[in-house]
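Limitations
The structure tokens in this dataset are predictions for the assembled complex, not deposited experimental models. Users should treat interface geometry with appropriate caution, especially where small molecules or nucleic acid strands are included. An illustrative entry is reproduced here so readers can see what is and is not provided.
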Amino acid sequence: MRNNLIAANWKMNGDTASNAALLAGLRLANPNRSCEVVICPPAAYLGQVQALLPEMGFVLGAQDVSAFESGAYTGEVSAAMLRDFGVRYVIVGHSERRKHHAESDELVAQKTKRALAVGITPIVCVGETWAEREAGLAEQTVKRQLAAVIHANGHCISEIVVAYEPVWAIGTGQTATPEVAQQVHALLRAQLRAATERSDRMRILYGGSMNPGNAAQLLAQEDIDGGLVGGASLKGADFLSLVSAAG
Ligand code: PEP
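Predicted assembly:
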């Protein structure tokens, strides 16, 4: 019912030469795969990557979008501009943006709305810190983050992708066990079910140190429908292995 989605978050890495080399290596991906593959380069390289992706059957994504439509917002990139570059997915609410740019649940909800308004699928990130998990607040935290997005987006909520990214697992090499991840994914699916009758078709990705060694077990969980991948997406062989684990 749901095909896996693997999204590469290159974060603030790369240059024209290394991007071209990385993408050249990804041409080896199985053309008969059923999973969808999204590459999210830094905004400065959207044009370069846009030109190279179609021949691989990958689609273009972005790492962030402005909450505003247009105008005097220096440094921001609007949803319409992303669409102009052929962007199909955009990551919103990544924990690095929540942390370094003080993005609130409400701002993330607005960004989600902007993306949906132009037909771009938002990949909405939720996840608890280690301190929140230790305090027994993991479920409450992710539910609060998702509730803000549901509240602001009404029936359009069925058009989003959710990514569960425990903050303590991002870039640390410490992955949530498949059981822990599945438990949170099932909780998020139940929350979506209460908001839309289309929840069974919605994809919930796992993100946090996904690598070739743990991907198959994570992806085998009932409510894990793909991965949002940081570090391993910058290594061609590792990323190819994740794509093949996703089917
Ligand atoms: C991410 O940046 O969303 C991420 C999951 O990073 P990593 O795979 O490096 O943990």
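Some entries come with short summary sentences. For this one: The domain at 5-245 is CATH 3.20.20.70 (TIM Barrel).
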